[in-house]
Design goal:
The chain is α+β, with helices and mostly antiparallel strands. It contains 16 helices and 4 strands. Helix 7 packs antiparallel against helix 8, helix 12 crosses helix 14 and helix 13 runs antiparallel to helix 14. InterPro entries: PAB (IPR045287).
């Protein structure tokens, strides 16, 4: 498929605006908020999330440094950085190359080998942050994060709503009132296993993989494979792992090797992928009836999968961009190449 934790920390600090080449095309009064919106429109060729400004305001209120949207060095090239959380982790938007126009950009945590899904969209992520802020400071008068969320926050969540929902726990509240989140679903499965309720664990893990819940992401299938293996269903686990590896490896939420081991995939699978990114491999696909544009899209996907093994995104960047260009996605080609 070629669609291609809530923020912690309270300390205030200076906002470091990483403006370089892209921001020089705007006036000196341009704020980091409008910089991201302009980048998404003009470079990523997508519709900016309606409440992106409010999300960035929340990061600022928590003392985080807003990243330049073009500061993509060392990151998966399909991401738009929002904020650096630690030396090896950023929060970003994911720009799927061929996403339907109606599909919002998901919020992800970008790590060396790929991305971890955080929320289906910006509003869902803001909603979760407000719930967790309310829980962590139920008796304090500070409204800093809620104020940063502005009118959007008031529409999404009223302070005290979680307390009124008790005895519902946080994960149950998030899943029922906010949206589907991988970490909440996974904790639910793990609790079932710890309680000895293996049937409920299998049902919950299967629901996690339901079509449409996390489109384009391999993580639900990878986790399901791990659960099946833990419960002694090795043959089903192998099939689930192989299913996970048909999606983008950089969406597994773990190292490729973990799932390849369950799938019983050896080095020969890597060799096959490397053969697929050669001109001969592409031509074989075309000769077998695959449309030329799809052959190039698949090649780009294979290149990104292989790059995720070591997190060496920059090494294949030019070839990935050329594949998108040959597939007729000139805007995506320019986007993946863009660097401050």
């Amino acid at each position: 498929m070629h669609y291609g934790a809530a923020v912690n920390g309270r300390k205030r600090g200076l906002i470091l605006l990483g403006r370089r080449n892209f921001s020089r095309s705007f006036s000196s009064s341009t704020s980091p908020l409008s910089e991201h919106e302009c980048f998404i429109k003009d470079v990523a060729k997508a519709q900016p999330p309606k409440h992106l400004t409010e999300l960035l305001n929340i990061f600022i209120a928590r003392g985080k440094s807003i990243a330049s949207p073009g500061a993509k060095q060392g990151l998966l090239p399909l991401t738009i950085p929002l904020v650096r959380m630690s030396p090896g982790s950023s929060i970003a938007l994911l720009r799927w190359p061929t996403a339907p126009s109606s599909m919002e950009m998901p919020v992800v945590e970008v790590q060396k080998h790929g991305v971890w899904f955080l929320a289906n969209n910006v509003d869902q992520f803001i909603h979760r942050i407000l719930v967790e802020e309310d829980i962590s400071k139920p008796d304090e008068s500070s409204q800093e994060i809620f104020n940063a969320a502005g009118e959007a926050g008031k529409k999404l969540y009223n302070k005290g709503d979680f307390a009124k929902s008790r005895p519902m726990d946080l994960d149950a509240y998030l899943l029922r009132k906010v949206g589907l989140f991988p970490d909440s679903l996974e904790r639910k499965v793990i609790r079932h296993i710890e309680n000895g309720d293996h049937v409920s664990a299998l049902v919950a893990a299967e629901f996690y993989t339901k079509r449409g819940n996390f489109p384009g992401f391999a993580r639900p299938f990878a986790f399901n494979a791990k659960v099946l293996l833990k419960l002694g269903r090795s043959l089903e686990a192998k099939d689930a792992a192989r299913g996970a590896l048909t999606s983008s490896w950089w969406t597994l939420g773990c190292r490729y090797e973990e799932i390849a081991h369950i799938a019983e995939w050896g080095e020969e699978q890597i060799v096959k992928y490397k053969e697929r990114i050669t001109g001969e491999g592409r031509q074989r696909d075309i000769d077998r009836g695959k449309p030329i544009s799809q052959a190039y899209l698949d090649e780009a996907a294979f290149l990104l999968n292989l790059a995720s093994l070591e997190g060496t995104w920059e090494e294949s960047l030019d070839r990935v961009a050329q594949c998108y260009k040959e597939a007729g996605l000139n805007d995506i080609a320019k986007f993946v190449l863009y660097r401050d």
